[in-house]
# Entry
Amino acid sequence: MLYLKLAWRNIWRNKRRTLITMASVVMAVLLSSVMSSMQQGQYDQMIDNTVGSFSGHLQVQDPGYFEESTLDNSLRVDDELLKLLQDHPKIQSTIPRIDSYALAAGADRSKAAMVIGIDLESEKQLSEPDQKIINGEYFNSNSENGVLIAEGLGEFLNVEVGDTLVLLGQGFRGMSAAAAHPISGIMKFGLPEMNNNMVYLPIDTARDFYAAYDRVTSLVVLLNDPEEVNEVVDDLRAELGEEYAVLGWQTLMPELVQAIEADRGSAMILLLILYMIVGFGIFGSILMMTAERKFEFGVMIAIGTARLRMSIMLILEMIFITFMGTVFGMMLSLPVMYYFNFNPLEFSGEAALAIEEYGMEPFVQFSTDPSILIQQGGIILIITLIISLYPLLHMRKLKPVEAMRH
Amino acid sequence: MRYRILAVLFTFIILPISGNLFAQDATEIIRQMDEKMRGESLESEMSMTIVRPNWERTISMKSWVRGNEYSLILITSPARDEGTAYLKRGNEIWNWVPSVGRTIKMPPSMMMQSWMGSDFTNDDLVRESSVVTDYEHELVGEETIEGRECYKIQMTPKPDAPVVWDRVDVWVSKDEYLQLRSEFYDEFGDLINVMKGMNVKEFDGRMIPARMEMIPQDKEGHKTVIEYQSMEFNESIPESFFSVQNMRRVQ
Amino acid sequence: MKFWSIIKLSWKNVWRNPTRSSVVILAVLLGTWAGIFSTGLMNGMSMQYIKNQLDTSVSHMQIQHPKYSEEFLPKYYIPKPDSMIQSLNRYDFTISVTGRSVIQGLASSATNTFGVTVKGINTHTDSTVTDLHTYLAEGEYLSESARNPVMIGDNLAKRLKLEIRSRLVINFQDVEGNITAGAFRVAGIFDTPNSAFDESNVFVNREDLNRLLGRENTVHEIAIMVDNFKNADQYRDSLAQSSSMEIRSWGDVSPSLRYTDSNVDFMLYIFMTIIAIALVFGIINTMLMSVLERTQELGMLMAIGVNRIRTFSMVMFETFFLTMVGVPVGMLLSWLTILWVGEVGIDLSAFAQGLEEYGMSTIIYPELPEGYFLNIGLLMLIATLLAAVYPSIKALRLNPVQAIRKV
# Structure
């Protein structure tokens, strides 16, 4: 206790020196947290863009559907299953979908299209078709006689709102699927592949079209907390048994995981480089501090203070400074992260256009995940503590006479 | 990969007229077998049953064929599909769907869709292959199938022939030149598909296997079965019968 | 004291405390090095990714019939391709040009079928436009003497269970719209870092494909490599004036590559800012300590009548000298590192298994255009000088009397 008190008093004896050293630690934590939060924010954005709008956090499917995505491997939905999903405390919503390919034809041209049956209310949380309509209007009921078509496909087929769209394909178990519906609205998607391919039908109309009554190809599940995907997947697997496949978005969209993995590699190197620079900044401060205190150390040794005692003291001092620096750094990082979360960095000019064309948002939104703070704070703490060994080593070699002569 | 099988299957649908044959060599046997389907008109009623591990479904249809250029297929059941018609004119397939009142020409992208949910694709309907000119033939033995004496002929595709098989073994009956069994092998010598002709019956004065089964070997429980209810040969069907307009009216 | 003596004094100060000076020099050096090296690394990574894609599949510019990219029908070929290729070759910026017939077809083996893009290539000119031949894993490149050879990717080979010399049947529409089929023999199997490409692209001789298409000298796509792919948009515009064909730059062909390109520039800019802040802060800290440590000495200077501007200048010059050592050495060092690592490469496989599937190679070769060295060096110089301002001002605020009294 005595040591603690002494050390605490010691660091405040020279306020500015302590503050400058602490400031370098604060800055290190701040910069690495902000950078990490930017990187994490980008991944979250990528995940949000695709997962939040298309695949959902997880899906419940027929066990054969993932390997062979055909209507024959669709899933019968009963109230029991829906209730089980709806009552799960971690599940925010369950969105039924039935999708397959069919031939879409206008008056004189036709093209293979992805024809998806959607639940008009819950789909608003997923692909937000109501927000994507640029002409006409959204569905009013799940059994409506109407269809939404993507802009690019509509242009190719030369159809407009009010025209009839003919759909021809194959339904459940080889039954023929044929339907003609008036176009209720035209949707604009960011991704060209989607903009040239998508047709939405109200879900009951789609089931009728595919002769797949009470069926879905997948139940898309959104969670309250996206981080809990794996737990909920395990949970549902245990509850639902072999009859159902429960797949997390990581399984559903391996390309996305790969894209993020690929980025993490370079991000890691950038972080390492940043650690090196901030680490050196801290080292500089500590080095200067040690140099300044050479005289003081010399005197103390000369008057017979045990080196061990001094070492313990010095360690405690360093730990105080480092901990305070880390904590302040973390406290300071949080508002910065939140600031850039609410005011994302925006791309400008051509870059913004290119990114929007690709269907991504032209800004970088920072993550506010508190675990970033803890992780980065921890890393800087360890780096600083390692650097703090320097004054200890220095002191062990210190020759009192030389030191005082300075 | 399945179109070869269909080509052979359609050999039955379209084909067979018996004839005298004294030729001995393998190519001649195959040519005789093949010739039966050429240049003839045929009106038939048949059913196709698609068998899958968990379900099966039967489609009934009527078909009109003129040579191998023109054919028209009308679905008569199940009720959901009744009246749907497929017209083949040369390399094109047209589809008439009464429930939407539209005639649609199959675009290339849809040609590979399975036809009516069977093991055949739309593309299989239009493709032509020649068991005579695309293969080298060799008589490798004689066996009895369905109680009939058969030539066993091994067919190997010629280098440029668009054939995926490494080898096709065909059993042709000595008496009527009926194709009673075919086995399709890949390059590694694995048997991929077996096609069987069974239940030989007399239709309009000719002996024909009334039941055909196509059994993919790599998919357990999968099978497509075609059965003929009636066949009428040599009813000369005019070319004008195979028109888009007529497709909507035909019954 | 004359101004010149202030500069001399600063120079002496630098050498009076070698520890402190070396800390500042090292900080500046490291900052400069890290800034340039990481830019080179990021730039190398994205350029590598983009170039890989351009070299193996996209090329720098593509010319097609305006309707071709809409429907992919073989009847939308380029009229008079030979004269077009000839005139393209006359442009200064053109490095190489090749014409291909391209069809969407269905590849079948006995075990499976898969939809593919079939490119009929002229082996002589195509190997100057793409580097596909460098990715051959098995077998050999297409030869003209062989009958209907085909080159496929390893992923397609796996999917269709094909080996060298295996039969591959491809079904497609000919120029008349009739469905036709051809049998090909697998001559080579390539394995590029892009598995999606390997799965869905096969290459055959153009003559072979055109024979099946039923029209000699059919070309659907002219691929062009230019001197600098960054200028592709500009070249496209200049070509577009004299042609009715659809000319697309790599960015038009692949918006995702354009996205990668734009995104990386932006990210680099943010990262540079963060590095600069870190560097500035490190320098402020060290210089501040050094100023405050010399309270007495500075006070004395002021007491003997050195005016404020000169005191300020002295500290600024000190920093300037330190920076002038740090920045150039840092630049030199980063140049050497980039040169060296650019040869050897950094293996990222430990960090990211996903890299290859994403179309990237796991070994990154940093690269940086010369212009960047100067820009970043300049940025570091300005950053460090800015960083010196605060400690210098702090030096001015010292009260001479107090300062001397203090010790």
Remarks:
- Chain C has two domains: 3-53+259-405, 66-244.
- Chain C has a mean pLDDT of 83.
